[in-house]
Amino acid sequence: MKNAPAHFQWMMDTIFQEEIFECWMGVYIVDIILYSETWEDHFQYIYRVLALGHKVSGLSLAIDQNNVAAILQKPLLRNIKEIQSFLVFASYYRNHIKNVSHIASSLYKLFSKDVVFEITKEWRGAYEIIKHELTNETFLTLLDFQLPLKLYIDAACSQGLGAALHQRQIDDGEPREGLICYISRKLKDSEARYGEYQTGFLFLFLALYKLHYYLEGAVFEVYTDCTALKYLVNMKTTNGHMLRWQIAI
User: Fold this and answer.
1) Residue 25 reports pLDDT greater than 60
2) CA–CA separation, 207 and 220 (whole Å)
3) Which InterPro entries does the entry mention (predicted)?
């Protein structure tokens, strides 16, 4: 852990060595600064940085299959270190994968202290599902801040939060509802004991919190299978958790 910052700095310098050599980028650990003389140049530089590992078209963002080919050729992971590396890699594309936290939960269990590493049908199945999702061309629509959004929340899932943000745009003269991103989060042990209504409120709060950089200042609608959420604004509760979520929302 002592040399982690230095190793990360080396990794960032290696990834962006061409851009740094061209003298329009500076990198310090997780901070990146871009230098440009015109707005046109600046937008080009931003495009090059944000497109890392993705295929970017005029209206969408997809996983670059050249980046995932090597890791997907492995038939099976052989140890904890390989599983950890795979999960870090998959996490980079988590916005493209529906319910990735739920799917990967059996893999994360292998990191527990008292769990003996062995190949099981459960975690092997999770590994294959994530590999399959990485090879799917799930296109993310590039956000238009002038248009309203739709937030879909799956409140019936017992494993954790599952939500998707969509936006209806005009593509080739036709209206089309496109996916902006998926989000997911596994329930903590204490949260797993919540009742149906409390879980529904938790999912709404988490979805709004995780997507606040998209939703803040935007017009959006929430679609969910938890009917209790429509009474949220006027709800009176003495439950501490739900009261804090209500105030925050």
Assistant:
1) yes
2) 13
3) DNA/RNA_pol_sf (IPR043502), Retrovirus_Pol_polyprotein (IPR050951), Rev_trsase/Diguanyl_cyclase (IPR043128), RT_RNaseH (IPR041373)
- How many independent structural domains does the chain possess? 3
Helices (H), 142-190: none
Instruction: Report yes or no on 57 lying in a domain.
Output: no
β-bridge pairing 60-63 and 140-141: antiparallel
pLDDT value for 180: 92
Please report whether residue 58 resides in a domain.
Answer: no
Q: Are residues 181 and 233 in the same domain?
A: yes
- Percent of the chain beyond pLDDT 70? 84
| Last-in-domain residue among 52, 72, 89 | 52
**Comparing C-alpha atoms, which of 79, 131, 76 is closest to residue 103?**
131
Interval 132-181: pLDDT, tens = 888 887 788 888 888 999 999 886 666 778 899 999 987 777 788 889 99
Find the distance separating the first CA and the last CA of the chain, reported in whole Å: 38
What's the rounded Cα separation, in Å, for the pair 29 and 38?
26
